Amino acid sequence: MTVDDDSGAPSMCCGTLAQAVGERDAERTDDAQESKIRASGRVFDIQRYSTQDGPGVRTTVFLKGCSLRCHWCSNPESQRKPPQLLFNTHRCVKCYACVSVCPEGANRIGEQGDVVLDRRLCRVCGNCIDVCQGKARRISGKSMTSDEVMRIIKKDALFFRNSGGGVTLSGGEPTQQPQFATALLKSVKQAGFHATLDTCGHCTWEALQKMLGYVDLVLFDIKHMDPVRHRILTGVSNELILENASRLSGTGIPVIVRFPLIPGSNDSAKNISAVGDYISKLGFRRLDLLPYHKFALQKYGGLNIEYQLPDVVPPTDDAIREVKTAFEAFRLKVSVVV
Amino acid sequence: MKTIDEAVVESVAEESATKYVTGLRRQLRARPRVQADVTESTPTRRVQLMMKQLRSEPIRVSCERLRPLIDTYKEFEGAAETIKMARVLERSLAAMTIFIDESPIVGTITKYPVGASPFPELACKWMLKEQAFATSLGEIVVSDEDKAVMKEAVAYFDKRCLWSRSLQTIKGMYPDADPITLQKIGLVDHSPPSLLSGLGILDFGKVLNIGLEGVIAEIRAALAKLGPWELESYRRREFLQASEIALTAIIKFAERYSRLAAEMAAKEPEGARRKELEKIAATCAHVPARPARTFFEACQSFWFMHLMPWFEGVICGSPGRFPQYMYPFYAKDKEEGRIIEGEALELIEIIFLKIAAIQNFEPDDLYKTTQGTTHQIMSLGGYDANGDDATNVIDFLCLEAQKVVKSAPLSVTVLYHDKLSEEFLMKCVELIRTGGGNPQFHNARVFLERALTSHPGISLAHARDASMWGCQDMVINGRGYLQVRSVFNSAKLVELALNNGVDPISGKLVGPQTGNAADFKAYEELAEAVRKQATHFVPLTNAYHSAGQYIKSKYFPNIVQSALTEGCIDKGKHLYEGGAQYNTCGTVFIGTIDLANSMAAVRKVVFEDRKITMAQMLRALAENFEGAEGESIRNLLLAAPKFGNDDDYADGMAREWYEVLYQLHQNEMAPPTPDFVLRPEAYSATNHFGRGRFTGALPTGRKANIPLTDASVSPMPGTECEGPTAVVNSAAKVLDCVKWGSNHLNLKFLPTMLEGTDNARHLLSLLKSYMDLGGSHVQVNCVSSETLRDAQVHPENYRDLVVRVAGFSAYFTLLDVPVQDEIIARSSFGWN
């Protein structure tokens, strides 16, 4: 729904989300709102006219929180569930408005005259955002009910109808908020829209199974076939993921496997061949190839997280073609998503 | 207003007139899918040569018409103006030095391959002031010899020109009027009213089918009916005689080319070139006087007629529905084995190149507004008379030709409807991908609804034959006239309301004193002040232009265009008098999104959230947001709701202000004659550049003197946050395109978003949805990697470029340079 504010566009995003979200906070609401809370989740972006997350023109809802920590993650602000403040220091104009406005004293003037944000003190209240003259700050993550999300989704109903599109639930990792994700998918199906789930597959089968009842297409990430290597690259083993992939194949729901192509991490001929072999044996017929890109670098800076792959260069045209051909050898229909 | 019965009688009577429109007589049956065989072509050697020449040829001003112009004016002083204008045309066509180069289609507007002619009778003083003149293709060259005759012309027309006479008329009506000040602050058009008067699409089909001799026969028949009794019949007779003089002059002009070709052929040794010259000689001896017999003759006949507006001082002329009137000639040739598709394609490419060689000679101020464009717009697609898809092979060839030659002054538009074939739409996307914003799309269904509601009694066949003229104006092909009364900058109204009627740029009190804005206690007080400014200025500035229109109508009738617009000969009236069958008159409103965004920002930031006071905002605007406080106020204003995000707060504001302007336009003004319907227009063309220069800082957060928001329903640059579906929803909701004569939406896409069949389909579904929602116009600009590189150097001009990659989106100009480089690299290869 918003162009990434991190990119510093004067924050002109007009408040569809802000207005819809209001001041609601799960912890503070009373019992009467119990059911509503269950249907409320943490969303970090809603992107309309998404064209690469399933068929047709889609609205992609990005849920915040992920159990993986992939080195190449292009949405690092999606990894943790709570709202986070992004502060792009290179855009700071040193007006120090944030220093005086912060109730926690989390912003202070450093020795070089630069603003230093102490994330241990920051309560992510957002007071510093409005006053920031360099538009260097934004918060990622809002609580929304599925009704609120549906209201935005329905704005594009005509585009879905004309394009054969629909809604994609992505993240972060949507299965990390199973109740909300299930409720939202249910609403999407009730509205008659095509529903796609974009998942890394790292969740209990029970959680996944509940959602699959409302899903027309699954985009299922497979990153590496070697469990040890997988743990190094993503922080978790791939056993649960592969088990879910196997179970998913038995449901008959259409699946597109998504493979991020990360030079030096998972692009060895051996891994490509292992992935191709595994998924083709499961009966999956389509694979999306997502070549590595560095577009997210600024966001790492904004979150003050170290980027794990500073020296990796995006794969060349030829390298992509080679991998594509390798996968095609397994009779997979391969699309390159750029 | 005509009754239904009269309309039926009339449409029966018009049956004979409609025979020139292709497809009218076609029987109702399922049409076969049409597609051209040529899908990927390379230009022929001749086309390549012409493309190269066009780019290296300087633009020159030819003053050849000035001598006959001055002499004719002197000789015919006191004669009827219609006759005088016809004689001016006749003599300037006779005096022009003609040439034949490698183009098989002959004819130019000056003695130079790329040239422009001055029209001092319209406005002249500026011609002495300017040092250098510029056009879209570069600087204009004026020779010293030409400068001398120009001086003489300026001296002669100083008090006689349209501009001077208009000013005299305005001053006579409004003794206190100060049109020059209003012009300097961009409220009155920065050009002679003549240039904005608008016209229509002449009836090319008629010329191709019955020839100018056929039209002259019609003129004589009309003359024969005129009796000696009515005063009116004498004036009509003058117009009809003038028409015959003008059309005969065009036939003679063509015959000169015929003789020249024959002379050249005689000197040429036996061979291909000689044959070609002989063909040119034969063709120009035959058309446009008589009906065209082949596609080649039709091309030449069309071309002579297309040149004519530039001989009569009009700055734009549109070919209209070219494929519709050209197709029968192609089909016949094809059936009789005279032509192959590639030959037709080459001729179309040559016409497109020759279109690019037409230039205007205009003052620098006007140039800053027009950006040197000649606004030649060709309409493809659309309905036939039965409401079926009218697309034929020529439509495909036009898309292909534009893809190959990229004729910038020519704009190709598609009259969109749901019956267009998939092949045709995909071909459109193919052209979009090459950059340049071609084709644009206009909504044929909205055109139909608009035509049916604008012109009581119009026949369905005529209503379906609407097409594009000029910038974004709809006219009925060959039967319509559109008078653009003025271009009005709505954004200026906010400035005047915030400054109690004082223009901040000149410091002069120009408008009504609507109160000290610092004292306003509620949004409604400001809204009332803006409404009062609008109520004052919209009718006043249009009255000035209306005076100009009167002068134009009285002294500068346009004869050729009138004679070839259905209705004029019957009525014996020229276009400016309402001679055409379907007449529209309207003001073009620009800057209305800036007005709406300003009002939304003030309401939200000052009156609802009370983050700043009105006084603080006024100070920040006066100082153009300079300084730390100014910048923080600007940020607050920028963060306020903005139109284009599918958010009813700002979109509702745009809708409301468009409605205020609509009501003013319809209720406070009157059409020039009962023949006209009033209909406001909403497009910027290139006026947002020109008017932006005279508009100070606005509560939208926009700084002073930079361009206003483009188009009429595009979001302000850099404020589009919700993606194209939101833009489309917003655009379609703020303006009733049936009531208005136009809307205007520009969308920008990076090449990666248009690559491959899937992305093409996504784009097409976006277009269809916009049309379904009732949008009237959209132009999809595919941003080239050259543009992206330019955006790296001049980020301020490209704030609205959005990059979208799977799961990631950002403003291009705010990304780090290496990331930008990667995006540029991605734009240049295709995967799917």
Indicate the low-confidence ranges of chain B by residue numbers.
1-30, 828-832
Class by SSE composition of chain A: alpha/beta
Distance between the termini of chain B: 56 Å
Task: Report the β-strand fraction of chain B as a percent range.
Answer: 5-15%
Please, what is the oligomeric state?
heterodimer
Report what the structure shows.
- The complex is a heterodimer of chains A (338) and B (832).
- Chain A has 338 residues and is α/β, with parallel strands linked by helices.
- Chain A is 32% helix and 20% strand.
- Chain A has a 9-stranded mixed beta sheet. A two-stranded antiparallel ribbon of chain A has the order 3-6.
- In chain A, helix 11 links the parallel strand 11 (255-261) and strand 12 (286-291).
- Residues 1-29 of chain A have low confidence and may be disordered.
- Chain B is an alpha/beta fold.
- Mean pLDDT of chain B is 89; it is low at 1-30 and 828-832.
- In chain B, the strands form 5 sheets. A 5-stranded mixed beta sheet of chain B has the order 5-6-7-14-13. Chain B has a 4-stranded mixed beta sheet with strand order 2-1-4-3, with no helix packed on it.
- The relative contact order of chain B is 0.10.
- Chain B is globular and about 80 Å long.
- The interface between A and B is large, with 56 and 61 residues.
Give me the secondary-structure topology:
The complex is a heterodimer of chains A (338) and B (832).
Chain A: H1 16-21, H2 34-38, E1 40-50, E2 58-63, E3 84-87, H3 97-101, E4 107-109, E5 115-117, H4 127-131, E6 137-140, E7 142-145, H5 146-154, H6 157-163, E8 166-171, H7 178-190, E9 194-199, H8 205-212, E10 217-221, H9 227-234, H10 239-249, E11 255-261, H11 269-281, E12 286-291, H12 297-303, H13 317-328, E13 333-336
Chain B: H1 4-13, H2 45-56, E1 59-61, H3 66-75, H4 81-95, E2 115-116, H5 126-129, E3 133-135, E4 138-141, H6 144-157, H7 162-173, H8 179-184, H9 204-225, H10 231-267, H11 272-286, H12 295-311, H13 322-335, H14 341-356, H15 364-370, E5 376-381, H16 393-405, E6 410-416, H17 422-433, E7 440-443, H18 444-454, H19 460-463, E8 466-469, E9 473-476, E10 480-489, H20 491-498, H21 523-555, H22 559-563, H23 568-571, E11 582-590, H24 592-608, H25 614-622, H26 627-639, H27 648-667, E12 676-678, H28 687-692, H29 724-734, E13 746-749, H30 756-772, E14 777-782, H31 785-793, E15 802-805, E16 808-811, H32 817-827
Parallel strand pairs in B: 1-2, 1-4, 5-6, 6-7, 10-11, 11-12, 13-14
Antiparallel strand pairs in B: 3-4, 7-14, 8-9, 15-16
Helix pairs in contact in B: 2-14, 3-4, 4-10, 7-21, 9-10, 10-11, 12-13, 12-14, 13-16, 14-16, 16-17, 20-21, 20-24, 21-27, 24-26, 24-27, 25-26, 27-29, 29-30, 31-32
